[in-house]
Design goal:
This protein has 216 residues and is an all-alpha fold. Helices cover 67% and strands 0% of the residues. It is built from 7 helices and no strands. Bound molecules: fe (ii) ion (FE2).
Length: 216
């Protein structure tokens, strides 16, 4: 490739942003007709979470636990998974989107495009939060379980510690963006397990399937 034929970075960025915007129009949860999950039939005999995702699934205490304890535990696994998702959306992803929307890079010729694409993404993130709220409350309601009251998520604490270690504003911003990108993309493997697990509660299966399509 000659020097003259090298595509400037700004054109590559523009191309990528256009692709992202096209994906958002086709795949984002907010642009797709989604079923009213609360209308889905509830089957009490089905698990609300994939057992294969439990880190203690091979522990003797788990193996020997009664079916009732296992069922409650899997319901709370679904609850804590969704609560963590809510924290990630609200405390990790949303602030990163808002930062770019409020302060797009001044000297970049992609400034307006970038701001525009981030505002699309933010709309979808708000729906992810809503889906998680509906999904865990559905299970608490059907199982008559007391909702979890937990705030001490490791990822949120680690993020705060990493940000406190940054000695410049630009480092803090970059760290926020990096953590947001990592947490949005690394959730895919986790989601995939439940999206492909037909044995779990229909709502849990459908919600994770919907979230997976909107991310990939
Ligand atoms: Fe999200």
């Amino acid at each position: 490739m000659t020097k003259d034929s090298v595509i400037p970075d700004s054109e590559n960025v523009s191309l990528m942003l256009k692709k992202l915007s096209a994906l958002w129009k086709n795949r984002a949860a907010v642009n797709n007709k989604h079923a009213d999950y609360s209308e889905l039939a509830f089957e009490s005999s089905k698990s609300d979470f994939s057992e294969s995702l439990l880190p203690f699934r091979n522990h003797d205490a788990w193996r020997e636990a009664s079916q009732d304890i296992k069922s409650r535990c899997l319901s709370y696994a679904w609850g804590v998974y969704n609560l963590k998702t809510i924290y990630i959306e609200c405390d990790v992803v949303t602030p990163a989107c808002e930062d770019i929307i409020k302060r797009p890079p001044i000297n970049s010729i992609n400034r307006v495009e970038l701001q525009d694409v981030m505002s699309e993404a933010l709309l979808d993130e708000a729906l992810h939060t809503r889906m998680s709220i509906m999904a865990c409350n559905y299970i608490y309601d059907r199982r008559r379980l007391e909702p979890l009251n937990y705030t001490d998520f490791n990822l949120i604490k680690c993020r705060q510690m990493m940000l406190a270690d940054c000695n410049a504003e630009w480092k803090r911003r970059l760290t926020c963006f990096a953590i947001a990108c990592a947490s949005e993309t690394l959730i895919t493997d986790y989601l995939k397990v439940m999206a492909e697990d037909n044995s779990i509660q229909r709502l849990c299966h459908e919600v994770t399937k919907g979230a997976l399509i909107s991310i990939i």
